[in-house]
Amino acid sequence: MARKQQTRKRRVKKNIETGIAHIRSTFNNTIVTITDVQGNVISWSSSGSLGFKGSRKSTPFAAQMAAEAAAKGSVENGMKSLEVTVKGPGAGREAAIRSLQAAGLEVTAIRDVTPVPHNGCRPPKRRRV
């Protein structure tokens, strides 16, 4: 029996003017996701997906490269302006925002949505180096 060849749909370029950039900056990595206003993902990138390994993933330079890669994908879809939501305490927060502006996207608002516990879970123990 011959197997039917599956046909894949080509990715259609959407023409989206405004969107939201979600920057998740942890102590280990930086993830940049660009969505439309409804929350549908247009492009994303992270320090780890760009080939940074180990402690280099958490650097501001790695965050800058991740933001550039995500911005490139969104500009191809016709995006011009962004709102930025930043979450987490990592080193790449400001570098990622600056990189989005340098990529030709107009940043209209910056919102910090870092979750703050109202004395919830016990934090991890302090490092002794």
UniProtKB/TrEMBL annotation:
Coiled coil: none annotated. GO terms for molecular function: rRNA binding; structural constituent of ribosome. GO terms for biological process: translation. Keywords: Ribonucleoprotein, Ribosomal protein, RNA-binding, rRNA-binding. One of its GO terms (cellular component) is ribonucleoprotein complex. InterPro entries: Ribosomal_uS11, Ribosomal_uS11_bac-type, Ribosomal_uS11_CS, Ribosomal_uS11_sf. PANTHER family: 40S RIBOSOMAL PROTEIN S14/30S RIBOSOMAL PROTEIN S11. Belongs to the universal ribosomal protein uS11 family. NCBIfam families: PRK05309.1, uS11_bact. HAMAP family: Ribosomal_uS11 (MF_01310). This is Small ribosomal subunit protein uS11. It comes from Terribacillus halophilus.
